[in-house]
Amino acid sequence: MRLADETVNQVRDLPDIVPVIQEYVTLKKRGRNYIGLCPFHSERTPSFTVSPEKKIFHCFGCHESGDLIAFVSRLEHLNFTETIVFLAEKHGIDVVQEEGGGGHFVPQGDREKVREILLEVREKCKLFFKESTVSQQYLKKRGLNSENIALFHLGYSPDAFNWVDYFEEKDYSKDLLFKAGLIYQSENGDVLPRFRNRLLFPISDSHSRTVGFGGRRLDDQKQAKYINSEETPHFNKRKILYGFDLAKSAIKKNNCVLVMEGYMDVITAHQFGFNYSVACMGTALTQEQVQLLKRLTSNVVLALDDDSAGQQSTERSFEILRQFDCQVKVIQLSGLDPADALQENGSEYFQKLIEDAIPMVEYKYHRALARHDKNVIENIPRIIDEVLPFLKAEKDPIVQDHYMKRIAKHLKVEPELVMAKIKKTGYNISRKLNLSTKSNKDKWVRAEEYLIFFSACSLDWRVKISEKISSTEFITAIHRKLFALIGESELVNERLVDSIEDADMKSMLSQIIMDAERKGFTEPRSNEWIDCIETVHNYSTKQRIAEIKQQLREEDINSTEVVTALLEELQMLKNNL
Questions:
Q1: Which of 417, 416, 447, 577 lies closest to 524, judged by CA?
Q2: How far is Cα 162 from Cα 178, in angstroms, rounded to an integer?
Q3: Neighbouring residues of 541: CB distance < 8 A, sequence distance ≥ 6
Q4: In what order do the strands lie in the sheet with 48-51?
Q5: Whole-angstrom Cα distance, residue 367 to residue 529?
Q6: What are 545-569's pLDDT values in tens digits?
Q7: What is the model's pTM?
Q8: d(Cα 214, Cα 223) in Å, to the nearest integer?
Q9: Within a 10 A sphere around the Cβ of 428, how many other Cβ atoms?
Q10: Of 129, 224, 293, 427, which residue has the fewest beta carbons closer than 10 angstroms?
């Protein structure tokens, strides 16, 4: 089957692209166009421009551009055909398909069948829930009402139900059930259902399509309390926020999002009126999840669990959020998780917690005080050292100065001593990137080190640099491995260093970061990063020129065609220098 041209053309001829783009980006009218913060890269000053007349967008920061189809395709991670269908259904355009040649191909493959299976499981388990006394009693004990149970499509997957037989009768293969993450193969080869005797939490994408499930154990067997659908091409937990489809309108309206940890937290929050709440479904927010949130707001309130794991998740989430210039505050839950805090104390109490949420530097300071007695003089440097990275992360010098003085006063030390520690790593030293040949290091080695440093300290720069140069183009072997490893991680700075297991690479990265900070580097200015990339590329070009000259000097080249090809390549390479 193929999409008819008339469907594609109707989507392309939509009269106004602004309302659609405004669902992802807050736009303000400026002259004949609209501007906003770019959804494709992190920025503070709007450089993303939409032209209603030309029906195109362009970012003057990252140079991403295109029409409405390209915009939606990029943000929703859809191919061309899926984007056309998505926009057509959104605007009431008939999706016409035609046989044979012409038109645009609609793959009748696994994706739609898997979605059908997941939707069928969701609806079937809602029926099972009505027959499950233990499930109903559990949710009643947790204080959930019937309206929110229905809103989040909660269900129950029984122990004995045979999903394979059920779907084979409906002409769905066992292979599709594997792809849907509903069954798995045990070590002895048995095919087993993933969710048995579990309360089921359907997980939806931003368009309310069921893409996976979370399941909570309802018995005392020695199994994990919570399990999720297996990661598949159809379900990537890193790219999904639980409850986002239900919360996105409220997030945009409130210009704020409450980020929680678990399913019950979000459902309870919505029940108590905090319908701008979502859950990260993991130990911390991911880069992809933050990019999803940035479409709607830059104001994030973290309400993760108050245990040790939750506190670590709060810090790791902040590390990601600050890379995208989010304004982050933290709720102090006093040992409770959000669901219990709401059920025990009510919405007014929780609203007060939100209003009293504290900046990350203050949160970290309180944690440091809980670990170290400030009345013991030897603990003062430890407390300051723990807070220091978060003081440095504060980009506004007025805010940084405010907290520096507050902490110094509370610890009864001179503010200059705290400032000295901040300046020690050279964050405020003026500098200029220098690739001159006067240094003992080769020019291209320093260029590689600068690129590694910028990528190691900022997710935003990591993306920019990786789009222009790959690890295979680095000349130094350890730099190649290090740059590749950094590209696979979402950690930055000291957390990135700590995550590296190879001792040589860990030492190399630490040395590069410390050397760059000593010289006062924070991020590249102007086109410095482009200069570094060109330096590496030019070295590779010169290396190839030397190889060609060596080949031409060899006496065993008797083919005129080979010599001609080498000379042509040599001339082309010289022209590119």
A1: 447
A2: 14
A3: 573, 576, 577
A4: 28-30, 33-36, 48-51, 56-59, 65-67
A5: 37
A6: 777 777 666 656 666 676 677 676 6
A7: 0.65
A8: 14
A9: 12
A10: 224
